[in-house]
Amino acid sequence: MTCGLSRLPAVSRIVILARMAKAISVRLDDEAERALLLLETSGLTRSEAIRSSLIASAARLRRGAELAAEAAALEADADDHDEMLAVAALMESLRAPG
């Protein structure tokens, strides 16, 4: 073990090792490299920048799926459709002539 882990009791070593992150390797194209450098200039480490970017991308995907599901539910809602038509008719009636 390294980093002084060998001096810890076996139970502590297991807990610490279980919490260590998995390492991955990626190849960056020029655009991704520029983006990473920009994130690093904000004060993030490479690891922090990559982790936060992955989490943000996943959140955007989830939000997009949530919005699509919400739009589909509204599209299928007959009451909502009727209300939308009523509001459109009201707005048309309030429009200035000409």
Low-confidence stretches: none
Number of helices: 4
Written as H for each helix and E for each strand, in order along the chain, the element string is HHHH
Q: Which value, in Å, is the CA radius of gyration?
A: 26 Å
- Based on secondary structure, the structural category is mainly alpha
Tell me, rounded to a whole number, the average pLDDT. 85
How much beta, percentage-wise? Answer: under 5%
Distance between the termini: 82 Å
Q: Can you summarize the main beta sheet?
A: none
Q: Give the proportion of residues in helices.
A: over 70%
For the secondary structure, the number of strands is 0
| Overall morphology | elongated
What does this structure look like?
This protein has four helices and no strands. The protein is mainly alpha-helical. The chain has a domain at 27-94. The longest helix has 31 residues, at 46-76. The protein is elongated, with a radius of gyration of 26 Å.
Features:
71% helix, 4 helices, mainly alpha, 98 residues
Give a short synopsis of this structure:
With 98 residues, the protein is mainly alpha-helical.
List the helices and strands and how they pair.
Blueprint: H1 10-19, H2 30-41, H3 46-76, H4 78-94
